[in-house]
Amino acid sequence: MQSMINDSMQLSQKKPYRFSLGSRVLAAWRLFLYALINLVFISTQLVLRAINGDKISGFPIFYHRLCCRVLGLDIITKGTQSPHRPTLYVANHTSYTDIISFATLMPISFIGKQEIANWPIFGLLAKLQRTVFIDRKRHNTDAHRDSITGRLQEGDSLMLFPEGTTNDGNRLLPFRSSLFAVAETPLVHDQRVTSSYVWVQPVSISYTHLNGLPLGYSWRHLVAWYGDVGFAEHMWQLLRLGRVTIRIEFHEPVNITQFKSRKEMSDYCFKKVEKGFYDAITGRPWTGPEQLLSKDQRKADQS
């Protein structure tokens, strides 16, 4: 298992082999529609924010569903969303399209790295979605916890990507247990510290099919944005493709009182997300990392 994690971390730092696939005409048409949608959304959301303040409305859900239609993303779901409010969702992270996909299902804000706030256009979109920006350095853990807890106490559900970066779409990276610190903090209601803690729901997201055909190991890099691949390069390739099927699986919500530590909670969530992820991309129930090994590799491990 450790060797698989090391391989994943190495993959996340490499630039994958790229080549052109799909239609440039389709990509240009989709890009035009996507730009038009964003122009309308930004204007409308600014007006709604001026009227409703920071309260998240249902308009972003409509916007992201429209984006999925234009970008060719088909979302299928399994399991049930947490009935608790607020909920901290924790998921694996493969691409910026994860955010679009999750935002089609529920009113939610995301926890993202500080650099995103300065990105042209997409930084503004993230701010309109009320993203919580954090600098993921260890000495800032307490500040991160406080800013995230503040939003949860306002009743906002948040999405956390505890891998800390994007994976290659074929494997998961280890979860950072320090990012689960917020789960250990009691929530405050009516200025009173209570004994209640935020509910945490593990969620798996997997890219499974392209134009109805299984998206195999060698092709999943077409949808995964990782390593040092440029954003514009990757998005142009994505726009050229046909329709991509994305499976999202919601697992049973938990809270910190069910575990001895946040590390134990982090490990539990990782295993749940991992199983849902591999169930989806392999097309069969996941029993462990040995499923990914060839017969020769399994013999070598046993010798």
Walk me through the topology:
Layout: H1 2-11, H2 24-52, H3 59-71, E1 73-78, E2 87-91, H4 97-103, E3 109-113, H5 122-128, E4 132-134, H6 141-153, E5 158-160, E6 188-189, E7 192-193, E8 199-210, E9 213-214, H7 231-240, E10 244-250, H8 262-282, H9 295-302
Please give a handful of descriptors for the protein shown.
alpha/beta; two-stranded antiparallel sheet; 9 helices; disordered N terminus; globular; Glycerol-3-phosphate (1)-acyltransferase; single chain
CATH class: Alpha Beta
CA-CA gap between termini: 17 Å
Helix-strand category: alpha/beta
Q: Write down the CATH topology.
A: Glycerol-3-phosphate (1)-acyltransferase
Mean pLDDT across the residues is: 84
What is Rg?
20 Å
Please give the number of β-strands.
10
Q: What would CATH call the architecture? A: 3-Layer(aba) Sandwich
Specify the helix fraction band: 25-40%
| Fraction of residues in β-strands | 15-25%
Topology as H/E string?
HHHEEHEHEHEEEEEHEHH
Per the principal axes of the C-alpha atoms, what is the gross shape? globular
Domain module tally: 1
Largest sheet: 8 strands, mixed
Total DSSP helices: 9
Q: List low-confidence stretches.
A: 1-14, 293-303
